[in-house]
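Open question from group meeting: does this chain pack into something compact, or does most of it stay loose? Before anyone orders reagents, we agreed to write out a predicted structure and look at it together. Recording both the input and the output here so the notebook holds the full record.
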Amino acid sequence: RKEIEKKRQAYFVYPRIEKKEDEDFLDSIFSDEDFPEKEKPNLAAQKDFFENPNLKSSQEKKLKSAEEMYDFLSREVYPNYKLALIHSKIDEEEQSAIMHAFKKGEIDILIATTVVEVGVDVPNATSMVIEHAERFGLAALHQLRGRIGRGSADSHCFLIYAEKLSDTAKERLKAMYENLDGFKIAELDLELRGPGEVAGIQQSGNLQLGIADLVRDRKILLEAREDAEKILKTKS
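Structure tokens returned:
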């Protein structure tokens, strides 16, 4: 609130678009409808849920959605400020208009999903609140954090997360706290979620290699690639 009073701007980010009263809890987290392709949680987040009994026991706790929090924050918390809502179900023309207004300073607080993860540059935005941060992948969290701190003023990113976390979720949040370097974040993200398939469509999960590890053996793998390229050139 102090930043808003200074005429700065802020983001509130949520992992889902809308709330459905009668939906199944798992569907509320991982449904295709609530998570268009670029907004789906990664496989590591899903793995956390199915393998951690503490997370399973909290099924009654519904995730907050961007739509419901837009209504709540507009009425109860920031009634004297201009708020706007943006997510992937809004048509592109309207999304562009909202982002243009936010960039011009006509909107104080933007309630969003990960649709603001990339391609957004608003130097006056200095604060971001990410609720249910444990539901986002490490790369997504880092990209979201990068939407603030683009001007000369100090910026603040607040990660709000569940009381009970899986070990993997703890590692992701710890990595966010300890690292600002994008390359290091990318390495940790690869290590935590897995590289996926070399000759398939899966973009995360364990790579079925007999011995090598892409993170641990990165240096020797790069050397092997260079040697292979040299051999191919000499034979061509």
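Observations to bring back to the group:
Confidence is low (pLDDT under 50) at residues 21-43.
The radius of gyration is 20 Å.
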